[in-house]
Amino acid sequence: MISGPTGSGKTTTLYATLKLLNKDTRNILTIEDPIEYTLEGVNQVQLKEGIGLTFSAALRNFLRQDPDIIMLGEIRDAETANMAIRAALTGHLVLSTIHTNSAWGTVSRLIDMGVQPFLIANTLNTSVAQRLVRLLCKDCKVVKEFDESKFPSKFKPYRKVYQHSVANGCDKCFNTGYRGRKAVYEVIPIDEELIEQIKLGNHNIIDLLKVRGIKTLSENAFELFEQGLTSIDEIYSLLII
Fold it and tell me: Residue 241: its pLDDT value, please?
């Protein structure tokens, strides 16, 4: 499951995953709205809600075709969520996206949709949160002394920052100060201990993530800033998640 706001690259990550999984021996079906890329060897279905072809209706028909892998463009409602869980319970690999702020927030969102925690615990393998961050133009970025008051008021820096890079603007970046983008991820593999936390409805698992060495979106964004690859303005919203 991949979470993030619109435009964060979730669908592109899903397609990249499908390309890795796409083999002649696998039956891969996708339900999308809209179909953004055409993949050879993959059966792709475009939703048409006006005639009743919704995510849940298409998924219900897909299950009769014995697919190995199902990709749902987005889990939007309780019916789709429950159909996806049902598909996963019957041995299918289900890939999808959902709108949440963090990887663990996916669990809370599914529960809010009416999915029982024990069903989530038995079917969710990996939860990923993703954002896209603009990178500073290498040809014109300027290094300046950093004032920690620029951090969000309640944010506690992971390390001391003495200098930072800021956008300037030149012909190569069309005077924007930025050139290129990089994805920032938070990846949580669901193991036995986390399965128990899902069943218990525990939303605070920060300590468990630290023990596993799993970095949050905030930590990964901070590293890009610390390395001078992006600006404080670009990661500001990620530091307050």
Answer: 66
